[in-house]
Amino acid sequence: GAVVSQHPSWVICKSGTSVKIECRSLDFQATTMFWYRQFPKQSLMLMATSNEGSKATYEQGVEKDKFLINHASLTLSTLTVTSAHPEDSSFYICSALSGGLETQYFGPGTRLLVL
Amino acid sequence: GENVEQHPSTLSVQEGDSAVIKCTYSDSASNYFPWYKQELGKGPQLIIDIRSNVGEKKDQRIAVTLNKTAKHFSLHITETQPEDSAVYFCAPRKGGGGNKLTFGTGTQLKVEL
Q: What is chain B's mean pLDDT, rounded?
């Protein structure tokens, strides 16, 4: 149980384009999901908290207009990187909070490369 | 914000030996202490967690010990195997709600044959 998937697993795009990443909880409902970014050989940095049916809460220094988050259902959250630039190239990882519990289950990650 | 450090940053052991990784945090209100294992190119996987009302927890070859007074908790892996090789992160949850985790600096564990 408690499986989280992400799609796509990797994406290459041109500078200036937008990229959408999906995060799904497959066997449980998640009222809260989190989005992290991880650069090579570094730790995970929390970008934002996504709550179903409400606006996401962004961490300090994360541009909400650049990283659009939508959590329209209890099993799906999406992160859209708008007007991507090479410095946005990173490993994006989502996690989902199982309802009633405090354990975060992580997806397999999405590697983004912006050329 | 919460300051989380891990030591050592790299650890190399022989197969069958034990490995210990220590995590030090700053927020005394932290109340949930998980350890995650991340293999190359994958997302983190929860391997063990402990809550603030418990001092030690064990699951087969893996154990976690918590010292709330000193604000640190440790991951213990016994009888290490090559497949234990990965990066390990502690991620204490800050008190005050929100369920946010603050990830530590990470420890690269290498188990050699």
A: 94
- CA distances B83 to A13, B11, B86, Å, are 34, 14, 8
**Token pair of A57 as six digits:** 């809460």
* DSSP SS3 for A79: strand
Task: Check: CB of residue A46 under 8 Å from CB of residue B100.
Answer: yes
Q: Per residue in A60-98, pLDDT tens? A: 999 999 999 999 888 999 999 999 999 999 999 999 987
pLDDT, tens digit, 9 for 90 and up, residues A11-70 = 999 999 999 999 999 988 888 999 999 999 999 999 999 988 888 999 999 999 999 999
The torsion defined by the Cα of B109, B1, A78 and B32, in degrees rounded to 10, comes to: 60
Q: Do A105 and B36 touch (CB under 8 A)?
A: no
Contact B46 A108 (CB under 8 A): no
| Strands across the sheet containing B32-38 | B10-14, B107-112, B86-90, B32-38, B45-51
A105 in reach of chain B (CB within 8 A): yes
From A77, A35, A18, select the one nearest A52 (Cα to Cα): A77
Longest dimension (CA), chain A: 42
